[in-house]
Design brief:
Layout: H1 2-27, H2 33-41, H3 43-61, H4 63-82, H5 87-115, H6 121-146, H7 156-160, H8 163-174, H9 177-187, H10 194-199, H11 203-236, H12 241-244, H13 248-266, H14 269-274, H15 276-282, H16 287-311, H17 317-340, H18 345-361, H19 363-373, H20 380-432, H21 441-449
Helix pairs in contact: 1-4, 1-5, 1-6, 1-8, 1-9, 2-20, 3-4, 3-5, 3-20, 4-5, 4-8, 4-9, 5-6, 5-20, 6-8, 6-16, 6-19, 13-19, 13-20, 15-16, 16-18, 17-18, 17-19, 17-20, 18-19
Length: about 450
Amino acid sequence: MVAALGGLLFGYDWVVIGGARQFYEIYFHLTSPSLIGWANSCALVGCLIGTLAAGYFAEGFGRKKILLVAAILFAISSVATGWAYSFPAFIFWRIVGGTAIGLSSNVSPLYIAEISPADIRGRLVSLNQLAVVFGILFAQVANWWIARPVLPGADPLATLQSWNVQTGWRWMFSAVALPAIVFTLASIFIPESPRWLLVRGREREAQDVLARIGGERYADIEREAIDNALKLERSQRRSSLRELLGLPSVRRVFLVGIALAVLQQWTGINILFNYAAEVYREAGYGANDIFLNIIITGSINVLFTMMAMVLVDRVGRRPLMLFGCIGIGISHLLCAWAYHAHAKSEIVLLLTLSAISCYALTLAPVVWVLIAEIFPGPIRSQGVSVSVAALWIASFALTYSFPILNAALGTGGTFTGYGIICLLGALFAGFFVTETKGQSLEEIGAHVVH
């Protein structure tokens, strides 16, 4: 639960900008698509930095300490972003907050996967995704609660001097400081990953952690499995990333991890969170209705993520990936038709909710589960780091490019592109994603290496 708190802060910090941006853009006088895209996506540069650092530092210093550092960065950056009075300061602290997201998004699922029994690992890694979506909903409700009603037809000067533009958006960013402090204090008391402890030769500590998870018998069985896996790795003398990449099967799993990460982002779902105001304004909704629509999307996101936690260890990873790609793709293509046909705004809302439902039920949790599972033990943290780095690069490209694509192609044309990518993703999942349900991490790793 404590590790999943990182997911909650990740979700809040990532999505809070969707409600705040219509006010800080006026405050900082942002008008060009490139500046709007940069302000909305700059945190993703920090996500990439945090992700690249997480792989190295999680191996050297352990999973627990990196989670603690992420918690501290969340607390500091949320307040500093909210009370930035210049655009460069705002950008700097958003990047610092993004670094915290990169660290927690990398280490939280890795930590949960390494500390969880195999039969419920999918559900527990999905708990991190559930925390992310609760963080998203928390941000959406906080934005709605903090923002004061927007008066239609207000002149530019009155809008600039309004409470929302001068102060409201600041509290939207700062509201997450309290749970960040709770995460900081709680991170001090969580145990270290038993797999990391055994790699470091700290056998007594690893035994104690495993016993706390499932009792002494579970600890003995799990420790023996981890020890055998470590011995196999050492006997093969393939503990380095470079040597393992000499194996075609390992290169393939790296490419699959990267492709999964890129696919998850280029489904376009995050546009519905980060650019909700544009998406629903184009459909005919007013400023005050947009906040309500955003809360509806967040609630649907939470509901279907909770359903996914039950399904991921019953149905399996691969069937959910196939269903999700096809469902999101069809929803996006129908949404594009609705924009072109100038259909009722309620139809656009329903189709975006359909896409979010499919995403929350499938790709949102399943991609994180697969990324945490598919890599062999000696390079798990590096493999997760590379995959999550690809995810944040793809997310930056998606978020930065949307204002530009939207201006050039229109909202309908842009969602047509996302829909086609999703259908191509279904083909990828069908041919290249293998099932990992019910297998231990050691069994999955052995299949890859052999």
